[in-house]
Specification:
Structural class: alpha/beta
Strand content: 15-25%
Largest sheet: 7 strands, parallel
Strand order of the largest sheet: 3-2-1-4-5-6-7
Helix content: 40-55%
Order of helices and strands: EHEEHEHEHHEHEHEHEHEHEHEEHHH
Shape: elongated
Number of helices: 14
Radius of gyration: 21 Å
C-alpha cells in the first residue's frame, strides 16, 4: 500500500498538535506496512524521520510561518474554486494564495509519484488533496483534526475556510475524524453522511527526555509555589480566559498557587490585561511557546494541568500530561474526554467547578497521588501502532473494488 500524504507542517517545524499527530500517524502507518510519501509546501529539515518526502517548492525557505494556520480571524477575498491565479512561486502570497498554489503543485506531484491512495490533513491541504485526486484518479481520504467551528470556539466561521472544508469533505471518498466529538460537528455543520466518516483517535507521541526546565518555573517551585499549567495556543478555542477566571477563585483559598501559561496566540495581550484586571498578575506567568525537552520539564514541574478548551477535536496535551503522571482537569467539550478516564472533567464555562477540581488536587495529597499513578498507567494504553492499523483498514476499504 502506497500513500501520498499532504501536510502543512511536520516536527520540528510545527506550531501545534497537528504536526505532532502527522509524525505519529506516519510512524504508525509504517509499522502497519504502509509506504508513505509525505508532501510539504516548502523545504524544511524533518530530521530523517520521513523515508520519502517531497516539497511543493524545494527552493522556498523553511522560515515561511506555519503559525498562520491557527489564526481564526483570517481575512481574504471570497474564495473561488479555481486555481487560475496560483501562478509561479508562493513567495509573498497571502495564506489563501499559498493554499491555492500548494494545491496546484499537488496535482503535478500526484501525476508523477506512484501511490494507491491520497491522504490530506486539515483545510490547508484539502484543496491539494482534491487536485491530487483529479490528477491521478486515486481515492482521497481527508483527516479532520479540527474544523473552523473549533477554531472560532463554535462561533461564526470564516466563510472562506468553511467552503474549503465543505468542498473537501464532499469530494473525499472517506473522512477520518479524530473523535466522535468531531464526527458530530462534521455531520451537523457540514451535512456529511455519518457512514462516510471513520473515527481514529489521536494517541500519545513519546516526549523528549526533560531538560532542567525554565529557570523562572524552577524558582517558583523552589519557593514552595504550587504550579498549575495551561499549555496551548492563546485563542478563543482553547479557553485561556476561563482558566484565568478559575485561577482567581483558586487563589482565594490557596494563595501559594501559581498559574503558568505556555503558549502564544492572538489573545495573549488580552490575557495579560485580564490577569491584571482580575488582580492576579503576580500569580500568573506567560512563557510563550514551549516545545521539546522544556515542555517535558514543565509537565514534571507542575502540580496540576488544565485544558479548558471551548471546542477541542482531540487534545493531545492531556495524554502528554498523563504520561508524566500529572493530574489533569479537562473540558468535556473535547475528543480526548472520550478516552481519558483518570482525570477530572468539567464544562469549559463552569469556572467554579474548574476551581473546585483544582483545589481538590492542590489540597489533598492522596487525590493527587492516586490521579498521578492512574494517569501514568492509563497513558500506556495509547500508541500510534493501533491507529496506523485502523488507518490501513480505511485505505483498504477505499481502494477495494465494490462488491457485486
Amino acid at each position: 500500500m502506497r500513500v501520498l500524504m499532504f501536510g502543512w507542517e511536520f516536527p520540528p517545524h510545527n506550531a501545534g498538535g497537528l504536526g505532532v499527530a502527522c509524525k505519529g500517524i506516519v510512524q504508525g502507518l509504517t509499522e502497519a506496512g504502509v509506504d508513505v510519501t509525505f508532501v510539504l509546501p516548502q523545504r524544511m529539515d524533518v530530521g530523517g524521520v520521513l523515508k520519502r518526502v517531497r516539497f511543493a517548492d524545494p527552493d522556498a525557505p523553511a522560515s515561511v510561518s506555519v503559525e498562520m494556520l491557527y489564526n481564526p480571524y483570517l481575512t481574504s477575498k471570497r474564495y473561488r474554486a479555481s486555481l487560475r491565479f496560483a501562478r509561479g512561486s508562493h513567495h509573498g502570497m497571502s495564506l489563501f494564495g499559498r493554499v491555492l498554489w500548494y494545491a496546484k503543485q499537488a496535482g503535478r506531484i500526484a501525476a508523477r509519484e506512484p501511490h494507491d491512495v491520497i491522504h490530506a490533513h486539515d483545510w490547508l491541504t484539502f484543496l491539494a488533496g482534491i487536485e491530487a485526486k483529479k490528477a491521478s484518479g486515486k481515492p482521497l481520504v481527508l483527516h479532520v483534526h479540527a474544523t473552523e467551528f473549533d477554531r472560532t470556539g463554535q462561533g461564526l466561521p470564516n466563510q472562506d475556510v468553511y467552503e474549503i472544508e465543505k468542498l473537501g469533505m464532499e469530494t473525499a471518498d472517506r473522512i477520518v475524524a479524530v473523535s466522535e466529538f468531531t464526527k458530530r460537528i462534521i455531520v451537523d455543520r457540514y451535512g456529511i453522511p455519518a457512514d462516510k466518516i471513520s473515527v481514529v483517535h489521536n494517541v500519545l507521541e513519546e516526549l523528549e527526555p526533560p531538560s532542567a526546565g525554565p529557570q523562572h518555573v524552577r524558582d517558583l517551585k523552589a519557593a514552595g509555589k504550587k504550579i498549575v499549567l495551561f499549555l496551548g495556543r492563546l485563542t478563543i478555542q482553547k479557553g485561556p480566559d476561563y482558566y484565568l477566571r478559575a485561577a482567581k477563585k483558586v487563589l482565594e483559598y490557596r494563595p501559594e498557587a501559581h498559574f503558568v501559561i505556555a503558549g502564544s496566540g492572538d489573545m495573549e495581550d488580552q490575557m495579560k490585561r485580564l490577569a491584571h484586571d482580575l488582580g492576579i498578575a503576580d500569580h500568573v506567568s506567560f512563557l510563550g511557546f514551549v516545545r521539546g525537552a522544556d515542555l517535558t520539564a514543565l509537565y514534571a514541574l507542575a502540580d496540576a494541568f488544565v485544558m479548558p478548551s471551548v471546542s477541542e477535536p482531540f487534545g493531545l496535551t492531556c495524554l502528554e500530561a498523563q504520561s508524566q503522571g500529572l493530574p489533569s482537569v479537562i473540558s468535556r467539550q473535547s475528543g480526548v474526554s472520550e478516552v481519558a478516564r483518570h482525570c477530572f472533567k468539567i464544562d469549559f464555562w463552569d469556572v467554579d467547578d474548574m476551581a473546585s477540581k483544582l483545589l481538590s488536587i492542590l489540597e489533598y495529597p492522596a487525590i493527587k497521588e492516586v490521579m498521578s499513578a492512574e494517569a501514568s498507567r492509563e497513558s500506556r494504553r495509547f500508541g500510534w501502532v493501533d491507529a496506523g492499523r485502523r488507518l490501513r483498514r480505511v485505505y483498504d476499504e477505499v481502494t477495494s473494488p465494490p462488491h457485486g
